[in-house]
Amino acid sequence: MKHLDQIFVRYKDNPILEKDDIPYPANTVFNPAACKYKDYIYLLLRVEDRMGISHLTLARSKDGFNFEVDKNPFMYPGEDPYFSIYEEYGIEDARITQFSDGVYYIMYVVHSAFSPRIGIAKTNDFKKVKRLEIISEPSTKDGVLFSEKIKGEYVRLDRPDDENIWISYSPDLKYWGKSKVLLYPREGKWDAQKIGAGPPPIKTERGWLLIYHGVRMTAAGRLYRVGVGLLDLENPEKVLGVNDGFLLGPKENYERIGDVGNVVFPTGVVIEGDELIMYYGAADSCVCAATAKLSDLIDICLA
Ligand code: BMA
């Protein structure tokens, strides 16, 4: 079996996007959602302006590494008062989930004086986007939607207590319940302080593969790293395995130095056969990519 340090391979020309790649003034770009649409790989970037407010902008690529960023944002904080009160401080850290009927759901963090919450929107064509609802109470982040209903219900993960990953269910994407705590930080280890879902869980024959971020508090501040776990296909409340060690942590300068140093924060993934490209924000200042084999990630969850 490969050493934990060899499973993810950083793209040689990281970072793949920096603030100067945004065709309008921006402070930073990071934490992108990812998906395939037609012949392209799309990223939905978190772009922060110089007021400190984030919005979401699309970028497209044929090869998954060279991206062209749209001239205009895809989603700004909402104007409709139903949403704007909760999006006033920005919309952040989107995750995209593609359903088999061709609908793409976007879960994103909304920020306001009322703490972070999770918003959900949908698009069929990446031209028009429709906000559906703000689906959580405060204070939660890292909302990710599973790519199909399980036993007739939509399923999501999020982090409502600033510490643990929870699972919840919905008949209609609007009303959510049956919430249960699913995964915990592990005392004394690399993910001891808090954990949150990364990209939406990946459906594989052997289970739902969850890439997550774990945080450890150190004398120099918080360290954000990447780990993996596997959930049962039919009952994702059953955890089949979580790897003990982290797979990717801040090492390169672009991960160590930035607006918030020592952060690798995975939010997007695309799959081609057994190959996976993971997209992550580094140091809250740029967008990076790393590749891995799906089978290696599953194997180490079960090792
Ligand atoms: C988390 C989120 C992310 C951010 C990370 C590191 O709580 O807010 O958007 O990348 O902290 O600052």
Please explain how this structure is put together.
The protein has helices at residues 4-7, 81-87, 253-256, 294-302; strands at 9-10, 28-37, 40-48, 54-61, 68-69, 90-98, 104-111, 117-123, 130-134, 144-145, 154-158, 165-170, 177-183, 194-197, 202-204, 207-218, 221-231, 239-242, 264-272, 275-282, 286-293. It has one domain: Glycosyl hydrolase domain, family 43 (Tachylectin-2, Chain A), CATH 2.115.10.20. The strands form five sheets. Strands 14, 15, 16, 17 and 18 form a five-stranded antiparallel β-sheet that branches. Strands 1-21-20-19 form a four-stranded antiparallel β-sheet. The radius of gyration is 18 Å and the shape is globular. It is mainly β and 303 residues long. The protein is built from four helices and 21 strands. Strand 12 (165-170) and strand 13 (177-183) form a beta hairpin. The N and C termini lie close together (9 Å). The relative contact order is 0.16. The site of beta-D-mannopyranose has 10 residues, from strand 6. Beta-D-mannopyranose is lined by residues 31, 92-93, 141, 224, 260, 263, 265, 281, 284.
